[in-house]
Design brief:
Bound molecules: pyridoxal-5'-phosphate
Structural class: alpha/beta
Oligomer: single chain
Number of strands: 15
Strand content: 5-15%
Largest sheet: 7 strands, mixed
Number of helices: 13
Order of helices and strands: HHHHEHEHEEHEEEEEHEEHHEEEHHEH
């Protein structure tokens, strides 16, 4: 049977198939969902009830997620991208506005700003790969409405500094927390620093479901009520529309999967942290690698375990040849993407971000990676440089 899709833009299944040939993988979904019959049983109940949109499962998930994020409110939406896009819309961000963000992120951060009608304005990152607060103020203009920091790889940005800048200039803050479920900074949770925050539950994120889903968190009752309307056609009731809007509900079926996974989020997080700490220990002695300094005030949840490496592309090819799924997240920063050509940015505009994009490599650190597998990875890296 030929499972290849006809449309070349339908390429995602190939990514899963390719990495499936390696021995030590980023993808672990078979093990993550080895208890899937339990989930299917709950879904069977849903099919019998016919309760496919919103309803009790979504409500329960939102309450539990809000508790985890340390915010009074959470709103389940269709994806992490929608979470960011709807957040910007709810704050009234529109055509002609500017949003300051990082050039070193996943495309969706920028896509959300652009689809909200605004213009992304980049500021460089620091050595921790996150938006550098000291680079923000020079980018503020009369059009700036918000700062959108990304907690890259699951490490919370310097939010106390960023919030202080936002307050001084009357700007909103929207956190891209898509990598940062369960992360903390001085004990405070990702998603509780900004006016709003967006989370993703994409299959390869730390809290992952069987397709797309996202969450918005907030401490504002007004924004909670507004966004609860906005993700459901703006409907106050069956017959009354408060504001013409979108349909971006978290699927009830996916809320069942999310509720199931939420029971395991501590295990998932702790497994990633333990594996990353072990890599830190074993890799720090290799002079060709640049392992970031860790901030003891920040609980980094390692959606990605990444570091700088000399001759990165050579190392990556060597690891893949040895069955290890090394990846680069991501080799081309946002301001140098073809999609950014109209904004007039050039190579050299953000030297730190560009240097990071040219040198970083990511290793699998999910909770199913074993010590023995980590030793194989470390040996393989050592052999490459010797
Ligand atoms: C995954 C991701 C998103 C978007 O999430 P989706 O659920 O895939 O739409 C946004 N920002 C970052 C940094 C991400 O990694």
């Amino acid at each position: 049977m030929n499972n290849t899709p006809n449309n070349h833009l339908n390429f995602l299944p190939n990514q899963y198939r390719e990495t499936g040939k390696l021995n030590i993988n980023h993808n672990y979904l078979d093990r993550q969902f080895s208890d899937y019959p339990e989930i299917l049983k709950k879904i069977e109940g849903l099919v019998q009830r016919g309760d496919f949109t919103l309803g009790e499962e979504v409500d329960r998930f939102e309450r539990r997620f809000a508790e985890m994020a340390g915010t009074p409110y959470a709103i389940g939406v269709g994806s992490g991208t929608d979470a960011l896009f709807l957040s910007l819309k709810a704050l009234g961000i529109k055509e002609g506005d500017e949003v300051i963000t990082t050039p070193f992120t996943f495309f969706a951060t920028i896509g959300a700003i652009v689809t909200a009608g605004a213009r992304p304005v980049f500021a460089d990152v620091g050595k921790d790969y996150n938006l550098d607060p000291s680079k923000i103020e020079s980018k503020i203009t009369s059009k700036t409405k918000a700062i959108l920091p990304v907690h890259w790889s699951g490490l919370i940005c310097d939010m106390f500094e960023i919030n202080a800048i936002a307050k001084k200039h009357g700007l909103y803050v929207v956190e891209d927390s898509c990598h940062a479920i369960n992360a903390t900074y001085k004990g405070q949770r990702a998603g509780s620093f900004g006016d709003l925050a967006g989370f993703s539950m994409h299959p390869l994120k730390n809290l992952n479901i069987w397709g797309d889903g996202g969450v918005i968190t907030t401490r504002s009752k007004d924004l909670y009520e507004k966004l609860s309307l906005m993700r459901n056609h703006g409907l106050a009731s069956r017959d009354v529309c408060e504001v013409f809007s979108y349909n971006s509900r978290l699927d009830t079926l996916q809320a069942i999967v999310a509720n199931h996974l939420l029971n395991k989020i501590e295990t998932i997080t702790n497994g990633r942290i333990a594996n990353s700490n072990r890599f830190d220990e074993k890799l720090r002695g290799i002079p060709q690698l640049n392992i970031p300094t860790r901030n003891p005030d920040k609980k980094h949840v390692y959606h990605l375990y990444m570091f700088g490496a000399e001759d990165r592309d050579g190392l990556k090819a060597h690891l893949i040849k040895n069955g290890i799924d090394a990846k680069v997240h991501y080799p081309i920063p946002m301001h140098l993407q073809p999609a950014a050509k109209d904004w007039g940015y050039r190579k050299g505009d953000f030297p730190i971000a560009e240097g990071v994009a040219n040198s970083v490599i990511s290793l699998p650190v999910h909770e199913f990676i074993t010590e023995a597998e980590q030793d194989i990875v470390v040996d393989s890296i050592r052999r490459y440089y010797s």
